[in-house]
Amino acid sequence: MIHLRLVLTIALTAVAQHASAANPLHLISETYSEWKERLFGAGHAAPAVVDAPANGPIAMQSGHPQRLRIDAEAPERDFPKGKSRYRVVEFPEELAHAAVRIQVIARRNEKGHGNAVFKPLFYVFTDGDGVRDPVEAKPLHLDIRPFRRTRLLGCVTLDKVQRLAVATSPEAVGKPYESDVRDAVKAPTPGGYYYTTDAVKVKLPYADSGELILEVTAETAAGKGC
Predict the structure, then answer these.
(1) Distance of alpha carbon 10 from its chain centroid, rounded?
(2) Where is the signal peptide (predicted)?
């Protein structure tokens, strides 16, 4: 009986650790709103977002968010998940552990109606020009509010990274991002107005180009920061 309890305890611990690594809402007591405020809200002290260079590698420092675009001018190459346009992000030195906070900005759909979004994959470069298996930002949480651009929020953790490529999967292009049903919202705005929204469920097609805001922070241990 004691051995059986020990085995069950180890198994449950492994499952919990796996769920924590796969989902940024890893704290049982933390709601989505609390997670969003902690990583992306006003209480998250971060420098102003700056625009990354339109071409070439993007030099990024820990704690300094940048807005980057992946468009028809971006380079293209074959990745393990298929050919994709991509941008390279470089850090001054290798980060043993890092958290990447992601904002995917919804933009006008150039190949249809409404808006579209980019589904990011992160490839860490190995020695030379090889890449590791991709890390997907999953889940991506919808942030839709009046008077603000719709965005998807996510976070991934990486280890031993100095250069990475931000790309997508051609299999995702054209397929829809589909949000969970969001409850009706009643909240004041900074200007003192009061707004309400109905419950909403959103579908946004994935595109082969897009706009993202990335912020990388150096962490003290693997899996931290999200």
Answers:
(1) 31
(2) 1-21
